[in-house]
Amino acid sequence: MNAKYLNIYNEIVSQIQSGQLKKDTKLLSENDYMRLYDVSRDTIRKALNLLEQEGYIQKIKGKGSFVLDINKFDFPVSGIVTFKELAKMMNEKSRTILVSLDLDLADSFTMKKLNISSEDKVWKVVRVREIGKNKVILDKDYISEKFVPNLTKEICEDSIYEYIENSLGLKISFAKKEITVEKATKEDKKNLDLKEYDMVVVVKSYTYLDDASLFQYSESRHRPDKFKFVDFARRKTLYPNG
Predict the structure, then answer these.
(1) What are the phi and psi torsion angles at 147 (to 5°)?
(2) Could you tell me if 222 and 239 are in contact, meaning their C-beta atoms sit under 8 angstroms apart?
(3) For residue 168, how many other CB atoms are within 10 A of its CB?
(4) What does UniProt give as the signal peptide span (predicted)?
């Protein structure tokens, strides 16, 4: 027999999935749920904690529990996909807002990330990605000028990768990625519609051309409720005879 908290969890999940409880709806208080289901506070807290862990609700201290948007956008982890391509797949109205575009000599940060010298120049491109009416991604790109000698506002608001591949004739080949969850910075809070969220999902990427030249380091900072990070994995035996 399922534990009582699992029955409560499943019932609330059903209400969310059916649309009976819509996104941003505030759930009943713990006391109300205790009376409704005739169970202890500990049982209700277990159910609410599981709902939060599974991404159905967000508990906000002093305010209560709120239903999240369960219709998240799939963000492919293994592929190299531009925001323009992603927006087409999502079939959602979107736009890119250029926050800043600068070309400067490499500092200690970009020297380390791009493996370049202090005499090399680096483009720093900061863009906000808007889906629907929500600003949900902050992209910070650092691109080596020796591979991409020119960037404009128009290119940055359209697609840098399209420009690199179609206009410069370079082939983007592969990327190494790292995904972390980090505390939202002042920059995140200023540029994104974070609502009550104080964390962001950060995808850090080192992107290479087909000759294995590292030309870009980027940090893509996402509002945590809007994306699912998906991948396809195939089993490969590391020790065939073991």
Answers:
(1) -100, -35
(2) no
(3) 12
(4) none
User: What class does CATH assign to 4-67?
Assistant: mainly alpha
Segment (H or E) for 222: strand 214-222
Q: Map tokens 């590391």 to a residue.
A: 238
CB 14 within 8 A of CB 51: no
Q: What is the largest CA-CA distance in the chain?
A: 70
Give me the percent of the chain exceeding a pLDDT of 90.
Answer: 57
Q: Is 174 exposed, middle or buried (0-12, 13-18, 19+ CB in 10 A)?
A: exposed
pLDDT tens digits, 55-107: 788 888 888 999 877 666 556 555 566 677 666 666 668 899 999 999 999 99
CB 33 within 8 A of CB 44: yes
Which CATH number is 73-230's, of 1.20.1280.290, 3.30.1330.10, 3.40.1410.10, 2.60.40.10? Answer: 3.40.1410.10
pLDDT computed for residue 1 by the predictor: 41
